[in-house]
Write a structure and sequence with these properties.
Blueprint: H1 2-29, H2 38-50, H3 54-72, H4 75-94, H5 105-125, H6 133-143, H7 148-166, H8 169-191, E1 196-202, H9 206-217, E2 222-227, E3 234-243, H10 247-257, E4 262-268
Antiparallel strand pairs: 1-3, 1-4, 2-3
Helix pairs in contact: 1-4, 1-5, 2-3, 2-7, 3-4, 3-6, 5-8, 6-7, 7-8, 9-10
Length: about 280
């Protein structure tokens, strides 16, 4: 029962994400000639050159890629991609006549990239794929020396260079901004907005600092044994994970006990476990 509910939830998530992606592509990217990589970028170029239907092109391009990836990679991977690929193509086709929400290329780039990234991120979180160049890149990475990341980057670069040739270099610059916005939003949807900090403390008084952190902040600490490269002295490094609104408090604790402590504060994309987000399959 739980497994069936999970599958239904994932299916709805893929459909929702595909619809949101189609809005970003159809209402912002395509009408403003923003070819921000991928099959949607190729569809944008072909639409403005030959008036080809973007939705039909996406479906026609995805279909053979799904079959080839099923034969060459695995049918399980192809089946996981088929719903998102077909749904995205279908929604783009249905939204082809939508009135563009802006004709400003910069606004179209930013909002189209952000909205598309949110949609793709939801699809990925729902264990699906929108198909397209992801399928092609996986095929290339399996049968050529290039990695998956290199294959995706190469395809996106070719699309953006094509935008520079067929539209103008200025539109290619917009496309780069759109690609950046899309990828950042995909990461944000999957990893969440960083509200968490990692604090590394190197001090001769780390045991006292850790006790104060535990008692005053109700946070745990982990000790790692380290050695100074210059002094060759054995040291104790304390690692503490806190929320960003607790940074001032932990600095005050450290300053009270050892003002000369060496402290590193860095961002953490995601923390799972006690005191933070619950571990479940959606967070994997």
């Amino acid at each position: 029962m739980i497994s069936l509910l999970k599958k239904i939830t994932n299916l709805l998530g893929i459909l929702l994400g595909s619809f949101i992606t189609a809005i970003g592509v159809s209402a912002f990217m395509i009408p403003n000639r923003i070819a921000a990589g991928g099959l949607s970028g190729i569809a944008t170029i072909l639409y403005h050159l030959f008036e080809w239907s973007p939705g039909i092109f996406l479906f026609a391009a995805n279909l053979p890629l799904l079959i080839i990836s099923g034969v060459l990679i695995s049918w399980k991977f192809a089946l996981n991609s088929i719903v998102g690929a077909i749904a995205t193509s279908g929604f783009v086709y249905l939204l082809e006549d939508i009135i563009p929400l802006t004709h400003d290329p910069l606004l179209a780039t930013l909002f189209g990239g952000v909205i598309s990234g949110i949609g793709i991120g939801i699809v990925f979180r729902s264990q699906g794929s929108t198909g397209g160049t992801d399928l092609l890149a996986r095929i290339l990475s399996k049968y050529t020396p290039i990695t998956l990341g290199q294959a995706l980057l190469s395809i996106d670069v070719l699309v953006i260079v094509s935008a520079a040739l067929f539209f103008s270099p200025e539109y290619a610059m917009y496309a780069l901004i759109g690609l950046f916005a899309t990828t950042k939003m995909i990461d944000t949807v999957q990893e969440g907005i960083s509200y968490t900090k990692e604090v590394r403390i190197i001090s001769e008084h780390n045991e006292g600092i850790a006790k104060r952190i535990i008692s005053d902040m109700n946070r745990g600490a982990t000790f790692l044994y380290s050695k100074g490269a210059y002094s060759q002295e054995d040291k104790l490094t304390a690692i503490v994970i806190i929320r960003r609104n607790e940074v001032a408090q932990i600095k005050e604790i450290i300053s009270d006990i050892d003002p000369s402590a060496f402290v590193i504060v860095s961002n953490v994309h995601q923390v799972l476990g006690e005191g933070f987000s619950r571990i479940d399959k959606m967070n994997e």
